[in-house]
């Protein structure tokens, strides 16, 4: 019986033309399909990335993602549904939703600076450049 080995991946809905829908932090990387974010984590035992989580909450096309520079378990996603969602990868859940007045531009990162209250982490305010 022959073995099949995956050598590439391009999920349905992937946006290869948009550089803002792929991000990495430490031993994780994430990329977006149209409505879902795929999180991969390095498996040190086999020295390869494995699917860790699929996060889906946006109702319209995801246009940008960014890892938190202060906490490797958090990342933000922006979408044409006018929401910026803050995710906790370790717990695989949404920790905050920020409603925006207008949709983000696909050519400009959706927010320059966000003030986020990290109630579940440090109970303090921090600035997050994305």
UniProtKB/TrEMBL annotation:
Keyword tags: WD repeat
Record flagged with keyword Ribosomal protein: no
InterPro entries per the UniProt record, alphabetical: WD40/YVTN_repeat-like_dom_sf, WD40_repeat_dom_sf, WD40_rpt
Pfam families hit by this protein: WD40 (PF00400)
Superkingdom to which the source organism belongs: Eukaryota
PROSITE patterns per UniProt: WD_REPEATS_2, WD_REPEATS_REGION
Keyword Glycoprotein among record annotations: no
Range of residues in the leader sequence: none
WD repeat copies, ranges: 55-97
Name listed for the protein in its UniProt record: cDNA FLJ25882 fis, clone CBR02655
């Amino acid at each position: 019986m022959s073995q099949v080995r995956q050598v590439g991946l391009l999920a349905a809905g992937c946006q290869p033309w948009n550089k803002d829908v792929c991000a990495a932090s430490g031993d994780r990387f994430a990329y977006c399909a149209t409505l879902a974010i795929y999180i991969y984590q390095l498996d040190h035992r086999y020295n390869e990335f494995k699917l860790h989580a699929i996060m889906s909450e946006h109702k319209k096309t995801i246009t940008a993602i960014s890892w938190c520079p202060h906490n490797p378990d958090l990342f933000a996603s922006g979408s044409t549904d006018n929401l910026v969602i803050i995710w906790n990868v370790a717990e695989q859940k949404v920790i905050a939703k920020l409603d925006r007045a207008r949709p983000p531009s696909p050519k400009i990162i959706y927010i320059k600076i966000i003030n986020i209250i990290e109630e579940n982490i440090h109970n303090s305010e921090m600035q997050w450049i994305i």
